[in-house]
Amino acid sequence: MPIYEYLGKIPKIHPTAYVSPNCFVAGGVEVDEQGAIFDYAVVRGDFSTIKIGKYSNVQDCCSVHAAVTPTIIGDYVTVGHGAVIHGAKIGNMVIVGINSVVLDGAEIGDNCIIGAGALVTSNTKIPSNSLVLGNPGKVVKEIGEDRLATIRMSAESYNQLAQNYKKIVGKT
Q: Nearest-CA neighbor of 52 among 80, 72, 69?
């Protein structure tokens, strides 16, 4: 498994979590129960710490790094393919869209969708229940109750996918 100690910092992976054998996880990283890190993602907790919450997933080719500030990813978060999270705080029940970027000191509230390709610049505060689109990312509308089910379903479906892969990988 691609989990590495870095200067005395050892990643803590919950036994129910899935970490692909094709990703890189190092340093002060914690993956909570039912969390998942998929193929070719890089999760580096060398300068500071990274926390990935319950039922949250970091998809293929993502980069998650902790800079001066820790990176905190809440519960039931889907980090879409190719996204970058760098020294930011992501609340609970969030989708960080494909190829989006969330930079140092940014804070994303609960129940948000950061649209594909959006750029959330450093120190930006996104209130809960927001849909963010564009470069730079701007709140374009409030998320309704109907979208909350979609956010949760995304995290749960990726959890099922991760558990399936965990069974397959365990057999090879």
A: 72
Residues ≥6 apart with Cβ < 8 Å to 111 = 91, 92, 93, 94, 128, 129, 143, 148, 151
Digit-coded pLDDT (tens) for 93-128:
999 999 999 999 999 999 999 999 999 999 999 999
- Give the whole-angstrom CA distance, residue 47 versus residue 86: 11
Amino acid at 146: D
Residue 98 to residue 101: CA distance in whole angstroms? 9
The helix (run of H) or strand (run of E) holding residue 148 is helix 145-171
User: What is the Cα 7 distance to its own chain's centre?
Assistant: 24
All domains in the chain, ordered by first residue: 3-146 (2.160.10.10)
Show the tokens assigned to 161: 């996918």
Predicted TM-score of the model (pTM): 0.96
> Over the chain, what is the mean pLDDT?
96
Token code pair at residue 26: 């190092």
Side-chain-facing half-sphere of 60: CA atoms under 13 Å: 2
Sorting pLDDT into bands at 50, 70 and 90, what band is 172? very low
Give the whole-angstrom CA distance, residue 169 versus residue 36: 13
